[in-house]
Specification:
By secondary structure, this protein is of the alpha+beta class. The protein is 37% helix and 22% strand. The protein is elongated, with a radius of gyration of 28 Å.
């Protein structure tokens, strides 16, 4: 009998241990914002659990906390989208705003200044991201840049769907509007361009500017032979990727010059030069033709002359032209500029080098906390967050640095957002533009403006601006906020 009691007691103890283990494993999902019982740290930042190679997720979320303008936007959009909760929309549909609302919730918790050490889980956000894309997140050594690109693209798509829904007056759109293919996993290691042009090369102007991370690039080419300038190609971007030069030490300006400096391209087929070549061919045929053929060729020549003068890009599909491969190759110059400056500028340093094997470019990249852009340096940005990468090309660890002053305005942004939502007719751009400028100016001279948090998953330590600016070899992504009003560059 004693042996049986001992067996029962042992079984009960083993069951209790197993149950405790299950609770501990599932703890991030069951208690996503539970505080850890750890030593008191006055005014500390909130950390994030790393349960499954999640540093790439954690660094992105911590960096986004540093952007007050993005958090204000998320709060505004989340509050407005609650009006549509009664509408029977699919969770994956863009207008449901699942990523927008989920990101706003986790950033709100991360922006809190806790009197004791606190660590939460990003599991609720990851789960909603997987719901939005109907796929599982692949955690095998992922890239923080590609995850941030994925998240910001989705936020922009949800924003556009919300605006389109407002303009059309409909109560809901089909889940098919998500434009995403189903797959087993979300693999953020997808090669994406930093700028994504629309089908016609343009972006809806009514949408650009309302989503704070969206800007526009304009590329203009000019033929060095005839001087022809085609219609500029316009594309939107939420993350601007910059190639790091193969040098030991460079600056962020050097990386930006790689995008905005004039580029000379050879072996280009210019539309006007091609039509001029076709006109010469037609004239030669006219000289040796008679009758109806001569008249037809003459009509073609007249049309070609008109197209050359008025619109060399006009389609002449109904006219027989020399093969494109026979057209003369010319040299062109290409210039790219920012046509619309975003409120929140996200920069990515592409450090990958490719030869026989892929390696990481470990060049030292000098940067400042103030960045000025524009032909006449009319737009000024201030650094609010930095993501660093420690390790090699195929593995490593991500760490986020963000200004402590970003958490000082949590209550203020709640009040300002509530005031804005009380007057729903007010333009969102007003909330996201000039009013932030005065706040930034006061914060810059505030006691916490020179103070930063350096956050590696659960580990949090304080540092200063100069400490952050010394992270030249590890710098990987920057988040800057605009400090001066948007200035549209003059049209050429």
């Amino acid at each position: 009998m004693p042996d049986q009691s001992w067996d029962i007691a042992s079984y009960a103890l083993a069951s209790a241990v197993a149950a405790a283990a299950v609770v501990w494993v599932l703890r991030p999902s069951l208690f996503p914002f539970e505080e850890l019982d750890e030593p008191l740290i006055k005014g500390g930042a909130v950390g994030l659990h790393n349960r499954a190679n999640d540093c790439f997720v954690n660094s992105v979320l911590q960096a986004l906390v540093g952007s007050v303008q993005l958090r204000r936007y998320l709060l505004q959009q989340s509050s407005r989208s609650q009006l549509a909760d009664s509408v029977d929309t699919q969770p994956r549909s863009l207008e449901h705003g699942v990523v927008t609302r989920s990101l706003q919730a986790v950033l709100k918790h991360l922006a809190e200044s806790s009197s004791r050490r606190k660590t939460i889980s990003a599991a609720p956000f990851i789960k909603n991201l997987e719901i939005a894309f109907a796929a599982r997140l692949n955690r095998q050594q992922q890239d923080a840049h590609e995850l941030l690109q994925l998240v910001l693209d989705r936020l922009r798509d949800e924003h556009r769907a919300f605006k389109a829904n407002q303009h059309s007056g409909t109560n809901g759109l089909s889940a098919e509007r998500s434009g995403r293919d189903k797959s087993d996993k979300i693999d953020v290691r997808v090669e994406k361009a930093a700028a994504s042009p629309s089908k016609d090369g343009h972006v809806e102007a009514s949408f650009v500017g309302n989503f704070p991370c969206e800007g526009q690039l304009e590329s203009q080419v000019e033929c060095q032979t005839c001087g022809f300038k085609p219609i500029p190609q316009v594309s939107s971007f939420v993350v601007l990727s910059l190639t790091v030069p193969q040098q030991r030490s460079v600056s962020l300006d050097d990386c930006l010059n790689g995008v905005f400096m004039q580029e000379i391209i050879e072996d280009y087929i210019c539309d006007r030069c091609r039509l001029s070549h076709a006109l010469e061919s037609k004239n030669l045929q006219i000289a040796s033709s008679t009758g109806n053929d001569r008249e037809r060729l003459h009509d073609d020549a007249v049309r070609l002359e008109k197209a050359i003068l008025e619109d060399p890009e006009r389609s002449l599909d109904d006219m027989e032209l020399p093969a494109r491969s026979s057209a003369p190759k010319t040299k062109i110059s290409k210039c790219t500029r920012i046509k619309v400056f975003p409120q929140v500028l996200v920069l990515h340093l592409s450090r990958s080098t490719f030869s026989s094997v892929s390696t990481k470019n470990a060049a030292s990249v000098a940067f400042d906390d103030i960045l000025q852009l524009g032909g006449l340096r009319r737009v000024q940005y201030e650094l609010v967050s930095l993501i660093t990468h420690l390790g090699g090309h195929d593995s490593g660890h991500y760490v986020a640095c963000r200004r402590q002053s970003a958490t000082d305005v949590s209550q203020e942004e709640e009040e300002e957002s509530a005031a804005l939502l009380a007057d729903d007719n007010g333009p969102p751009a007003k909330f996201l533009a000039g009013e932030r400028r005065s706040h930034s100016s006061s914060n810059r001279s505030g006691k916490n403006h020179d103070k930063w948090w350096c956050i590696s998953d659960e580990r949090v330590r304080a540092c200063k601006t100069q400490d952050v600016l010394q992270k030249r070899n590890e710098a990987y992504m920057f988040i800057y906020e605009r400090q001066t009003p948007i200035a549209m560059l003059p049209q050429s």
